[in-house]
Design goal:
Strand order of the largest sheet: 3-2-1-4-5-7-6
Structural class: alpha/beta
Radius of gyration: 20 Å
Bound molecules: S-adenosylmethionine
Strand content: 5-15%
Shape: elongated
Order of helices and strands: HEHEHEHEHHHHHHHEHEHE
Number of strands: 7
Helix content: 40-55%
């Protein structure tokens, strides 16, 4: 196991790299935002297309990932900030930039985060159930499991994990936590497995805890709220006319939001009627990309002037 915060050598392989380069079609001198820079895998390749006067702004909520990105993006054309992509207007205002030419989001979490036992993202590790991308603020997954009522917990697991057994899982969690708090990934896996065994065997290739872990991660990080706000307001406002956006999602809740946003023909020329998925060769090399869906669109007309940015509750955590 690697210590949290230790940059180490990245284990994450950028997914759909060829397709990202093709759909973004970056040209020299442009301004590119990588809103989920992670270990910098995509950005590093995009930089090669930016020429000497281009700029790349890389954002990530996770300081550990930014430390990794800084190893491969040590370049005067790059600016890295710890922030959510949903803080884009604040970040651009601070940098004195009105609008950008290209935006990439590669959502979800990186293999580096999944492998780090101290983060609690994986049901295969035994570490504490934290699951925050930004470890400096907000409630952890263990906090939610300790404090939410049975109905809230069941709703959360159903809504964000699309888990049909959400009620029996929530009941089992609430029963168990009266005698012993659910603090670690192993505690949660045990509770979910117990709930499923009560309800009879399941026919599924996925680990029975997959959906519950996904639901908690989405809730802890307010992932859908960030994406919704970004798609509805910030992306259309801050992308130049003819600017391109490429978004990679890993589950249907996110993909639906992106698909619906790009359907707005007033704003977007959709470049991907169907989502692009990884070729079989990539799927063999990198199993993580099997669920990846890429959608791309071009901003059709000149955006209206940016609105004042004080109307969104998500503020930068590290204005740096
Ligand atoms: C799949 S990884 C990105 C990998 C990256 N494209 C690469 O090639 O190395 C997703 C990253 O997004 C970050 N992330 C998740 N939600 C975010 C948000 N709202 N704003 C900024 N970063 C976010 C995670 O911390 C993680 O590092």
């Amino acid at each position: 196991m690697r210590a949290a915060g230790n940059p180490g050598s990245p284990v994450h392989r950028p997914v759909l790299l060829r397709e990202v380069v093709e759909f973004l079609d970056v040209a020299p001198g442009q301004i590119v935002v990588d809103g989920t820079v992670g270990a910098g895998g995509h950005s590093r390749v995009l930089l090669e297309h930016l020429g000497p006067s281009g700029k790349l702004i890389g954002l990530d909520r996770d300081p550990m990932m930014l430390a990794r990105a800084s190893l491969v993006l040590a370049d005067t054309r790059c600016t890295l900030k710890q922030a959510s992509y949903a803080q884009l207007p604040d970040i651009l205002d601070r940098l004195g930039i009105d609008r950008v030419d290209r935006v990439l989001l590669d959502l979800g979490l990186s293999s580096d985060q999944l492998a780090d036992q101290s983060r609690g993202f994986s049901f295969q590790n035994a570490g504490p159930l934290d699951m925050r991308f930004d470890t400096s603020q907000g409630a952890t997954a263990a906090d939610l499991l300790a404090t939410l009522g049975e109905v809230e917990l069941s709703d959360l697991i159903f809504r964000f994990g699309e888990e049909p057994a959400s009620r029996s899982i929530a009941r089992t969690i609430v029963d168990r936590r009266t005698s012993r708090p659910i603090r670690t990934a192993a505690d949660l896996v045990e509770a979910v497995t117990a709930a499923h065994s009560r309800g009879g065997p399941r026919q599924s290739e996925k680990h029975p805890a997959t959906r519950v872990f996904q639901a908690l991660r989405i809730a802890v990080n307010h992932e859908l709220e960030h994406l919704q706000t970004f798609l509805a307001n910030f992306l259309p406002e801050r992308l130049n006319a003819d600017g391109r956006a490429v978004i990679i999602t890993f589950h249907s809740l996110e993909d639906r939001l992106v698909k619906d946003a790009f359907r707005d023909h007033e704003l977007w020329q959709n470049l991907t009627r169907k989502p692009v998925t990884a070729r079989s060769a990539e799927q063999r090399m990198n199993p993580r990309c099997r669920t990846a869906k890429l959608r791309a669109a071009v901003r059709t007309k000149t955006p209206s002037p940016p609105k004042a940015t004080g109307d969104f509750p998500i503020r930068p955590t590290n204005p740096g």
